[in-house]
Amino acid sequence: MRDVAVVSFAQWRNEREHQGSPNGIEMLVPTMTEAVEASGIPRKEIGFWCSGSSDYIAGRAFSFVMAVDAIGAWPPINESHVEMDAAWALYEAWVKIQTGEVDSACVYGFGKSSAGELRRVMTLQLDPYYVAPLGPDSVSLAALQARAGIDAGKWSERDMADVAARALSAGAKNENAVRRTERTVDELLGLDYVASPLRKYDCPPITDGASVMVLAAGDLARDVCSRPAWIRAFEHRVDTQNIGMLDLTISNSAAKAAAAAGVTDDRLDVAELHAPFSHQELILREAMGIGDGTEVTPSGGALVANPMFSGGLSRIGEAARRIHDGTADRTMGHATSGPCLQQNLVCVLEGE
Amino acid sequence: MTEPVTMITTPMELTYQYTVGPVETQFQRRLKEGRIVGQRCPVCQHVYVPPRGACPADGVPTEEDVELPDRGIVTTFCVVNVPFLGQKIEPPYVAAHILLDGADITFQHLILGCPADEVRMGMRVEAVWKPREEWTFSMENIDHFKPTGEPDAPFESYRHFT
Fold first, then answer.
1. How far is A17 from chain B (nearest CA, A)?
2. Cβ distance of A25 and B24 shorter than 8 Å
3. Which domains does chain A have, with CATH numbers?
């Protein structure tokens, strides 16, 4: 296996409603310029470009093609796309480098959720025979999961509010968050339900955004970056898409991905978890065995900014940033996809 | 005895608000004034119409406005013979790629005003605008392009668009 590192990361300042088109070009041009310049690799020398986005968020087919303008695709480039969070585009780019075909890659994700009705868009990812026709939206499904955990005695509404309050405190310190006001647990519990037992801050905010990351292999990474964030493990697993067959109070795929990636609580300084709903952080902590010695989602995560299709990449980016700035030696970025933590990806990073 | 269910139809509907980006907004506002304004890339100097958020070859914003005439040439075309649902014009008619004088990229529009089989590559055309009071924020302010009758452009002048 080749040594591959994250050498730079940049994100658009997340917004509740971006005043630009859904093709993301206005967000990507400056963000990509920032990430590529910070990488130290000339744009035309980057070996592979890979993006993550969704036509269903944009409301049109082939929506990601417009975004390719941000790259400057002449002479012709080696490019790919996943209809998933860009964390999976990062995985494809990492594999591409492992094949030896290229030594560097630029990965980007973007989405303008505010253009449509996100909760209904997400219904379309469900099993088309038995589940999607019932029309369950993403918030209602998460509420079913939260309720299942409460009924099983695994967590309480107060535990969920605790997660939300900590996220809001982190968001207050993060200029990329769209929720920047701290609130106490009691304040949060005093709010009405959005979808019982979920209250407003148990759910993620609608967010428009984009992020860009550059990977480089071996000596190239050492040449361009003073402290590369080396990818030591990169695993992803999937549970069945048939939601009626899952025990919603756990996430097998998260547990398996974390185990395969060798994640143990003792050795992680930081774990950036992609948990769009507050109870999901509790499920992930348990599934991945994350203990009290690890700083969990110091950015505030999806509860303070949830740019769809770049949010997972941004968890890995935040984890890499802590290696780059020297404040951590071993970190983990997690990304989730599908309803109720159905698919999970884990990326473990280390400084040398 | 009930029949087995072999097919279900589950219609789904989503609504979106499409927001035009700043560059397209400016382009469309100028169309309402009867002007076609492209933009030039500072690196490769190509003029794009309609202008886009970035030059696709260089990945940098195009910021310099370039006023363009409403005349140019046909670089390639297609004769539409097949009727389809929602068709607004009766076939045969011609959809063509038009290279305006001074532009470095073509856009698609209609050719009317001559029999479909007379349309050819290199044919010089000019816009036929709708009445001013019908103008809106759209390329549809130009109803179609028609031949000007001038000699065709030499193939070498537009070869790289074919």
1. 10
2. no
3. 4-117+206-224 (3.40.47.10), 231-350 (3.40.47.10)
